[in-house]
Model the fold of this input.
Amino acid sequence: MKRRQFLRNTVPATILPAFVGGFSLRTFGAESPLMQLFGETPVSDHVLVIVQLSGGNDGLNAVIPIDNYSNYFNARSNIAIPQNSILPLTAQTGLNPAMTGMKSLFDDGKLGIVQACGYPTPSFSHFRATDIWMSASDSNQVLTSGWQGRYLNYEYPNFPTGYPNSSAPDPLGIQIGSTTSLTFQGPSISMGMSISNPTSFYNLLNGVEDPAPNNNAGKELKYVRLVARQTSQYADVVKAAAARVTQQAVYPANNTLADQLKIVARLVKGGLQTRVYMVSYGSFDTHSLQANAGDTTNGNHANLLKNVSNAIKAFQDDCKFLGIEDRVIGMTFSEFGRRIKSNSSQGTDHGAAAPMFLFGKNVLPGIMGSNPTIPTTVSVNDNIPMQYDFRSVYATILENWLCVKNADLQQIMLKNYQSLPLVNSVTCKIANPNLSGTSYLEIWGTPFVQSTNIVYRTDGGHTLLQIFDTMGRLIKMPVDADLAAGSYTYSFDSGVLPAGVYYARLQNNSVQQVKAMIKIK
Amino acid sequence: MDRREFFGTSKKKKETTPVSFASPSRTLSGVNPYTGPWTTNEVIHLLKRAMFGAVKADVDFFKTMTMSQAVDYLLNVSAAQSQPPPPVKTYANSTDPTDPDNAVLAGQTWVNTNTNDGAVNSNRTINFKNWWYGQILGQERNILEKLTLFWHNHFSTECDSIPRAIWCYGNNAVLRKNALGNFKQMTREVALDPGMLYYQNGYLNTKTAPDENFGRELQELFTVGKGSDNATQPFAEADVKAAARVLTGWQVNGTTNLAVFTPSRHDTADKTFSAFYGNTVITGRSGSTAGDLEINDLLTMIFSVNDVSMHICRKLYRWFVYYDIDAATEANVITPLAQIFRANNYDIKPVISALLKSEHFFDVANQACYIKGPVDLIASLCREFSVVFPSAATDYVGAYNTWQIIWQLGFSMNQNIGDPPNVAGWSPYYQAPQFHEIWINSDTLPKRNQFSDQMLTSGYVRGGKTIKTDGTAFAKSLPNPGDPNKLISDSIIYLFRLPLTQASMDQLKRDVLLTGQTNDSYWTNAWNAWTANPNDTVNANIVKTRLQSLYMYLMKLPEYQLS
Done:
């Protein structure tokens, strides 16, 4: 299968100047005459679905090297897939036989694989590695925000003040499940909401709702739950969107990933403007009994892969059935791959790099990268080296699918990453950030070299202005006082601070808002 | 019957919009001393009601005693404890260089220096409220602060309506000093408290045109009440007028801040009361002792009717137990408590002792059903999670600044300490049919959630000081935090009064604590790695982020709102 030509994202330069008088366009409200001069802000209708495979997926038994089979087999003979069972994608590479669904997508040109995604000095800890993949941090860096949280904060800078509103009526990000992960954590608050079942108010906010006992305590519990449901500002729009979709394609039963993806398709088709969804499946932490002795094509890992493959295939077919195929792509990630050499429990231990899957009609199909090198003699310490930094994949998706301007990528990804040919970007309309809601804080001049002006307003009373770095460290606290209502300017001199992204945070009573700014060399 | 058995599953109902949640079974238990199990569960129940939160160290402390000893301990408040050091100045001087407050140095108390400067008094009022929260947050192992707040809600005054903060503070001092003393004595002191005299227009009450405000509220709200349905006024309107006349002649001496009686302003005629009071006639007096003597007669008369003890016991019941007083509770609890109250000449301690030691108080039906008011919610979280505040001894400015954060938080949730909405106190304590459900609405519930979220993440900042918690102190206090199952189940024991099912605990262990992992040892290893090497930031972060997620999640569950 040939790879399609990579099409650079081209937008005629006459449409929108990046800067006006040195100030980023983001500092002007959507209703300002200046914005109207440049015409209507096009809204992107692209949707990204993030599929988390938790536990550390054994990529080597999912995407299998055909061209180096004997070394592969020798390294892990007690779990290796028989050569003639592999589903071939190319002459060199194939899939685990359980993944018939994704093979079919590959044949349809709707599956891309990026080999050996990782990052330098990888962590082998589930928790730490998960945080790294969700925050897109370096291995030695602890970030308090997630990559999607930063993206959504860039896209909707005034959230939550004045949200929801007519131009942003829907949740910004949705996690199917009970909790909101670090992925959606913005620089200050979570940018996503969790949904377990969009049709019922039960569990709309929390996954856990035990039956209330039949006594006074239960009575009061029910009351508080009732208020909680009624209070959820997004409950109505989510419920309404779900109600609009009365028929979907068939999804496999007993497959919780399929259940989640079915909800995603329903909400996208139902009309939510939500751009990012996250679903989760696992556990892939197959330290033992990964494959059945005597028949390695079956077993725990095979089941997991089968469910993932079938769920994604069903989801893709449903997107076609619902007519939303053009708008949706998905990606998988796992906090690490697993060891090349299997252990004696018929499993594998924590490893390093592993493949990422991308699926969707507008994914550039094919396999990027080469099979991992497996030496003839593999020691227990050997791990799959990284070929691509996973943050390149993120950055590419942000730029070419979520249509973030290249100049603004650094604010989200914090560094510059190599862009990869992964997604058909020709449909990307430049989506300027949504400036609806009420702005309490503006950065007049970003990126900046030394100093910038922070204009903030307060409704009176205790007002707090803080400067944080991306690791959540408080750099400065310029304002911590009772102020009269009004607008104020703080001139922020960055002194000898290193170049990079910083956040200005304003808090005035219950209002809090965070905006990003970039110091450049 | 063990608690889990009692908390069976209710029938699954199809979801409809509830019109009313019909009140399930009440209990027939009474004031006989409780003889049931005295376990962690009962200790936590007692502490969450009698104190602000159930801190594990306190639970451990009271578990070493019997139930009776524990209640006795909680009710043992020394004179020194009930008269803590007064607030100190942290606000700016007056803009008027001649104002007496300028002579008060920062860090010294202002309660003995008069000022009429509006801005200074306004600052003093906030300062007082901050100081009050300091008392609450630093409370000893006794009931004093919970009870002081009760008396404040009962003998309501509004600081914002009282021009001198000294009177506001003084009023509070009267309540705190008498909280476990004698109710009749407290009523007398409150009646002549400058704050109350001002607030209820007592100082304007003269013979020419008696002001009925306090005369009415004294009977309707503070003593006799309005019957078991809170709607039937047993005393006559004429009694209000008569009482008003008894109370004529009092003012506040602006220098001494004491009530002062002016005979010429007093109505010296006899005051006749209705049949409700046995047609009592209070002899009109004249002269400088007239006011005192007539007030004594008035209180003797009022306290002779059983309604007073019934009314106060109902209020205590609603504060410490539950709002629903059905016929059985009225007969089996309120009535005997009222008898104890009267038999002890209106000493407060015997009543509260009987209530807190009763089988009714420990009845499972009366556990877990109390919606925490904002002060309770906020103070309990701070105490249970060992939120660190600057020490008042070494950094009083930081202390008052951070206490002010707490005051504002309570205010935003509709409980501005020192300023109930009106003289009836906060409506959750009297407004049928919802009572304490009034605390929770679509505005305040998100604020409660935001509060616990923020306290567990960025915390709150004021004056350069931050108050927050990351959950590690709380987790460390538990017996076995390295075991994720025990971490969760023990956390729930201390944070919730209702259990979660094993399935729910497993789900949130997997989804929240283990972030999708299914192997418990990942948490155990992370916890052990951190405790072995707490300075390792990566280990610390792994543990802290997960504990934060866990506790933010737990405290956003509706169960957390219940006490």
The mean pLDDT of chain A is 85. The two ends of chain A are 44 Å apart (CA to CA). The first strand of chain A starts at residue 19 and ends at 20. Chain A has eleven helices and 21 strands.
